[in-house]
Amino acid sequence: MAVGQLSAELPVTRPAVSQHLKVLKQAGLVTDQADGTRRIYRISLAGVQAIHHYLDQMWSQALAGFQLAAEQIAQIEQNTASRDSQEEA
Questions:
Q1: CB neighbours of 65 closer than 8 A, spacing ≥ 6?
Q2: Region label for 45, one of left (φ > 0), alpha (ψ between -120 and 50) or beta (otherwise)
Protein backbone atom coordinates (compact mmCIF):
# COMPACT_ATOMS: atom_id res chain seq x y z
CA MET A 1 0.00 0.00 0.00
CA ALA A 2 1.00 3.60 -0.47
CA VAL A 3 1.43 5.94 2.50
CA GLY A 4 -1.85 7.71 1.69
CA GLN A 5 -3.76 4.42 1.65
CA LEU A 6 -2.23 3.35 4.94
CA SER A 7 -2.87 6.67 6.67
CA ALA A 8 -6.52 6.56 5.53
CA GLU A 9 -6.89 3.30 7.48
CA LEU A 10 -5.04 4.45 10.59
CA PRO A 11 -5.74 7.06 13.27
CA VAL A 12 -2.41 8.84 12.60
CA THR A 13 -1.20 11.45 10.12
CA ARG A 14 0.56 10.76 6.84
CA PRO A 15 3.88 12.10 8.19
CA ALA A 16 3.57 9.74 11.18
CA VAL A 17 2.88 6.80 8.85
CA SER A 18 5.91 7.78 6.76
CA GLN A 19 8.12 7.92 9.87
CA HIS A 20 6.92 4.51 11.02
CA LEU A 21 7.48 3.03 7.57
CA LYS A 22 11.01 4.45 7.53
CA VAL A 23 11.78 2.68 10.81
CA LEU A 24 10.14 -0.55 9.64
CA LYS A 25 12.16 -0.38 6.41
CA GLN A 26 15.42 0.16 8.32
CA ALA A 27 14.54 -2.85 10.47
CA GLY A 28 13.95 -4.96 7.37
CA LEU A 29 10.26 -5.49 8.09
CA VAL A 30 8.92 -3.74 4.99
CA THR A 31 10.19 -3.11 1.48
CA ASP A 32 9.19 -0.33 -0.87
CA GLN A 33 9.02 0.11 -4.61
CA ALA A 34 8.48 3.22 -6.70
CA ASP A 35 5.19 3.43 -8.55
CA GLY A 36 5.18 6.76 -10.36
CA THR A 37 5.29 9.45 -7.69
CA ARG A 38 4.20 7.04 -4.96
CA ARG A 39 6.07 4.40 -3.03
CA ILE A 40 4.33 1.10 -2.47
CA TYR A 41 5.19 -0.66 0.78
CA ARG A 42 5.01 -4.39 1.35
CA ILE A 43 5.68 -6.59 4.33
CA SER A 44 9.04 -8.34 4.08
CA LEU A 45 8.57 -12.06 4.57
CA ALA A 46 12.22 -12.49 5.57
CA GLY A 47 11.88 -9.77 8.21
CA VAL A 48 8.72 -11.29 9.66
CA GLN A 49 10.35 -14.72 9.72
CA ALA A 50 13.34 -13.25 11.57
CA ILE A 51 11.03 -11.77 14.23
CA HIS A 52 9.18 -15.06 14.49
CA HIS A 53 12.47 -16.92 15.03
CA TYR A 54 13.61 -14.38 17.64
CA LEU A 55 10.32 -14.61 19.55
CA ASP A 56 10.41 -18.42 19.44
CA GLN A 57 13.89 -18.37 20.97
CA MET A 58 12.94 -15.76 23.56
CA TRP A 59 9.85 -17.69 24.66
CA SER A 60 11.75 -20.99 24.75
CA GLN A 61 14.37 -19.42 27.02
CA ALA A 62 11.75 -17.73 29.19
CA LEU A 63 9.74 -20.93 29.59
CA ALA A 64 12.87 -22.96 30.36
CA GLY A 65 13.80 -20.40 33.04
CA PHE A 66 10.29 -20.52 34.47
CA GLN A 67 10.38 -24.33 34.58
CA LEU A 68 13.76 -24.29 36.36
CA ALA A 69 12.50 -21.75 38.92
CA ALA A 70 9.32 -23.75 39.52
CA GLU A 71 11.31 -26.95 40.01
CA GLN A 72 13.65 -25.22 42.47
CA ILE A 73 10.72 -23.85 44.47
CA ALA A 74 9.05 -27.27 44.50
CA GLN A 75 12.29 -28.84 45.73
CA ILE A 76 12.65 -26.26 48.52
CA GLU A 77 9.03 -26.79 49.58
CA GLN A 78 9.52 -30.56 49.52
CA ASN A 79 12.68 -30.28 51.65
CA THR A 80 10.92 -27.97 54.11
CA ALA A 81 7.93 -30.33 54.41
CA SER A 82 10.25 -33.30 54.91
CA ARG A 83 12.21 -31.44 57.62
CA ASP A 84 9.00 -30.37 59.36
CA SER A 85 7.65 -33.95 59.41
CA GLN A 86 10.97 -35.24 60.83
CA GLU A 87 10.92 -32.62 63.58
CA GLU A 88 7.38 -33.62 64.55
CA ALA A 89 8.37 -37.26 64.89
A1: none
A2: alpha
pTM for the structure as a whole:
0.64
The strand pair at 30-35 and 38-43 is best described as antiparallel
- Note down pLDDT in tens along the chain; length 89 residues: 999 999 999 999 999 999 999 999 999 999 999 999 999 999 999 999 999 999 999 999 999 999 999 999 999 999 888 888 777 76
For 15-46, letters b (16+ CB in 10 Å) and e give eebeeebeebbeeebbebeeeeeeeebeebee
3-state secondary structure at position 9: helix
Q: What are phi and psi of 31, to 5 degrees?
A: -120, 160
